[in-house]
Specification:
Blueprint lengths: L18 H12 L7 H13 L5 E3 L6 E5 L2 H12 L12 H5 L16 E4 L12 H11 L3 E4 L10 E3 L5 E7 L11 E5 L6 H9 L4 H13 L4 H17 L1 E3 L5 E4 L5 E3 L1 H6 L3
Length: about 280
């Protein structure tokens, strides 16, 4: 059993960057890999993201339009470009990145009718999906609010059960960057209907997507199973929670103390195990 120290917990989220991922990065730079094209990357990434056995996302077939992204940051930024600051909305307690861009959230019952909503799932503050998710869907139905989901952290999550075919969900995006790949951002956006924004232009007009970026991402997905991090670290995560007398969540690095609504991150602790 490893020795876990409460003071090593963090208030900021940290990915698990262990020996396997470091070795993968080193081997990538040291060895020549056959280059792949855009279409091959989409096929590999689409299959990889769908292959999780610890999350249950239904309704993928309703999203025929698939575009490559430079990570979920580009997915978020595309809303600022397309709608401006006032043309879409977010809920309160979203990530600081929105505040840095000048965007602030509102309470659930204050959502404006007919204004698209960009939503983060899973969410650090809750250690998984938002507890009011069903209520959110009902409000969006009644107020004609389109939902767009930022799934950036789902590679570190389990137990996320969402029916993507819900009529108000219009697009969502996932990325490999939280899968210990912050040094190479690549992901996909799935949409029910094609829209004109920087992601669309990059994919279908200029098509100037870095083939090195795509090849590396595909190589990583062929090397590591989609649920690799949970499969490898769940035992140590549960041991850590027991040792520190904390409650586990559905995000592999996030935990809570009894009677404390705050969330704490153990990514650095799990990385330090040297696995």
């Amino acid at each position: 059993m490893f020795r876990y120290i409460k003071d090593d917990l963090s208030k900021n989220m940290n990915i698990i960057r262990d020996k396997e991922f470091i070795q993968f990065q080193e081997s990538w730079f040291d060895n020549k890999v056959k280059e792949i094209n855009r279409e091959t990357f989409i096929k590999i990434a689409d299959d990889w993201f769908k292959s999780s056995k610890i999350n249950d996302l239904q309704g993928w077939r309703h999203f025929d339009n698939i575009d490559i992204t430079n990570g979920n940051t580009q997915y978020i930024e595309s809303f600022f470009v397309r709608y401006g600051l006032s043309g879409f909305q977010i809920l309160e307690n979203e990530y600081a990145y929105y505040t840095l861009m000048g965007k602030h959230g509102c309470k659930l019952d204050r959502l404006e009718p007919n204004l698209p909503l960009l939503l983060t799932i899973p969410h650090y503050n809750y250690g998984g999906n938002r507890p009011e998710y069903d209520q959110l869907l009902a409000i969006c139905e009644n107020r004609n609010i389109d939902i767009h989901i930022d799934f950036a952290w789902i590679p570190l999550a389990k137990g996320i059960d969402i029916d993507l075919s819900h009529p108000n969900i219009k697009s969502f995006a996932m990325s490999i960057s939280k899968f210990a790949m912050t040094w190479n951002k690549a992901g996909l956006r799935w949409s029910k209907q094609r829209t004109m924004d920087p992601i669309t232009i990059m994919n279908h007009y200029y098509r100037n997507i870095n083939s090195n970026q795509l090849t590396c991402g595909a190589h990583m997905m062929q090397r590591f199973d989609r649920d690799h991090i949970w499969n490898k670290y769940e035992m140590y995560y549960n041991e850590l929670c027991d040792s520190l007398d904390t409650k586990p969540t559905n995000i592999i690095t996030v935990l809570k103390f009894e009677g404390d609504d705050s969330t704490y991150d153990a990514g650095k602790i799990l990385t330090s195990l040297g696995l």
